[in-house]
Amino acid sequence: MSVQTWTWILVGITFALYFGIAIWARAGSTREFYVAGGGVSPLANGMATAADWMSAASFISMAGIISFAGYDGSVYLMGWTGGYVLLALLLAPYLRKFGKFTVPDFIGDRYYSHTARTVAVFCALIVSFTYVAGQMRGVGIVFSQFLQVEIVWGVLIGMTVVLVFAFLGGMKGITYTQVAQYCVLIFAFMVPAFFISMQMTGNIIPQIGMGGTVEGGEFLLDKLDKLHVQLGFNEYTSGTKTTWDVFAITLALMTGTAGLPHVIVRFFTVPKVKDARKSAGYALLLIAILYTTAPAISVFSRTNLIETVSETKYSEIPEWFKNWENTGLISWTDKNGDGKIQYVAGNALDGKKPVYTELRGTYGERVIANANMSAKNELYVDRDIMVLANPEIANLPNWVIALVAAGGLAAALSTAAGLLLVISTSVSHDLIKKQLKPEISEKGELLAARLSILGAIIIAGYFGLNPPGFVAAVVALAFGLAAASFFPAIILGIFDKRMNKEGAIAGMIVGIVLMLFYMMKYKLDMFGGGTKEDWWFGTSPEGFGTIAMLVNVIVSLGVSRLTPAPPQKVQDLVESIRIPSGAGEASSH
Questions:
Q1: ∠ Cα 67 73 75 (to 5°)
Q2: Residue 51: helix, strand or coil by DSSP?
Q3: Using the 8-state DSSP alphabet, how is residue 355 labeled?
Q4: Which end of the chain is more exposed for a tag (fewer CB within 10 A), N or C?
Q5: DSSP string spanning 169-237?
Q6: How far is 262 from 156, CA to CA, in rounded Å?
Q7: How many CA atoms lie within 13 A of 219 on its CB side?
């Protein structure tokens, strides 16, 4: 059977499973809609958390970025993995004990202020919409390539699927759907890795195969380093980022993780604090399976890409190249007229994306209008296709190629659903119920939550059709925004009794505004643009969340010390949530 037939079959089966779970797990109350009734087992919650955590950025884009950035791409592995550990050990148990299942709810009650809650709602919406933009782009990429539909229709189909299981079941439907999605995505990620590792190195375990030898006895990483140097790139295993920027990006990703609303809410879907800790442990183990495999897939895909396309005549190029060329995610311009693909260091395009004309070139290639004719490099490759195209490049069976498509959709849809629920909760619970209309009935609040999801999906679809960049790059900015706004307010709210509402509000506003400005200036070119040489303190936009976070902390502490202390009952509450359950009884004997 063809790849397209296999894809329709596998995607159809998985979608039917998701719909079935959504209907079975319909939410009948706000508690079921927001926190799945608080009765999810630790193992199921761990699987759901892992699926929620491993978004399209982890599945589709992370290995793609590492395959091009090499050593520099390791910041994503360190930051996202370390961030989850930070969240599980340092924040989750205390937030769970505090009893507030949304970040704005925690901030509103801890800082005894509707203004603080409103600022937190605004930050949650900014972070979540930035994050969900990456997920919808991932959905569009998978559908446009594997189901051969226009990217517009791909995003619309993805929106419809998420709407069904988020609208019907809320957190209850999403949780059990994510358990199934974890199984799909991890199977889809690992099977090609096993195949390709065995094919290239003779070792079926990818993590070992990456450090193994290829035909001729040469180490795979040594071979890739040589290929890179021959083509004018930096060695794959050497970095170009400064030590400071690596540190800044890693810390921004770590602290941003700890402030992500859609992950924090997961610790309220289990019955007890003890279960929250258990589910965090399960999730970390389940996440590690993918995160330790991603570097191997990066090495395999990079090596295969270079050996397959470099100095190859376009007329003899494999079919996978032309298939992906039709999606606009890979392009070639014959600059020297030899009919061969020259893949060397340099920007093939004058701009970030190819601008296609209606014409076809001499060899049948799609003609682009913005080729950078002054650069020798003729090939543009979108980083986000590397994991999805990898099985095709390696000539794996069609069912494996289709399986990766189903896995990519599972990863994108699982996280998109979690984010959309955060958006709806922020509007219906933290804005309407807690502030605008406290007397609203449970039925009315549930309706408001569902309508909020509908509105959020429409906005998310727009971002999917007009994405601001690569999936992982966009998601990294969401982490920076979370680090700049939420992390100081949460961590100081737990560990500093003297922290008051004035300090928290001032810190969050300064942090989010600073991060937004830097992101728009140096990443989105909205304020005149800027070059790498203009970066503040040599810090990339992905790492600037660290500086914005530190400014937030300084402003928060400074303002809180110059304004009145919090009420005594708030200070007592902060003291109580730091005492482990049962400690008082134990110390009295």
A1: 155
A2: helix
A3: -
A4: C
A5: HHHHHHHHHHHHHHHHHHHHHHHHHHHHHHHHHS-S-HHHHTTSB-TTS-BHHHHHHHHHHHTTPPPTT
A6: 23
A7: 7
Closest CA to 323 of 416, 217, 401: 401
Dump pLDDT digits (tens) for 38-95: 567 888 888 888 887 777 777 877 888 888 888 888 888 888 888 888 877 777 778 7
Find the length of the chain: 589
Residue 330, strand partner residues? 381
Residue 330: its H or E element: strand 330-332
Integer Cα distance of 377 and 331 in angstroms: 11
Report the SS3 class of residue 272: coil
Helix (H) or strand (E) holding 366: strand 366-368
Chain mean pLDDT for the chain = 81
Residue 412's alpha-carbon distances to 17, 57, 185, 351, 475, in angstroms, are 16, 8, 10, 27, 12
Do residues 243 and 539 lie in contact, with contact meaning Cβ atoms separated by under 8 Å?
A: no
What is the residue whose two structure tokens read 């392009």? Answer: 331
Q: Which domains does the chain have, with CATH numbers?
A: 3-304+392-472 (1.10.4160.10), 330-381 (no CATH)
CB 138 within 8 A of CB 387: no
Torsion of CA 173, 174, 178, 180, to 10 degrees: 20
Q: How confident is the model at residue 166 (pLDDT cuts 50, 70, 90)?
A: low
Taking the C-alpha atoms of 474, 476, 478 and 479 in order, what is their torsion angle to the nearest 10 degrees? 170
Model pLDDT for residues 81-132, shown as the tens digit of each residue:
888 888 777 777 787 777 766 778 888 888 988 888 888 888 888 777 777 7
CA angle 192, 198, 203 (to 5 degrees): 125
pLDDT for 529 equals 54
Contacts of 462 (CB under 8 A, 6+ apart): none
Residue located via tokens 């569902």: 450
CA-atom Rg of the chain in angstroms: 24
Tokens of 477: 């900015």
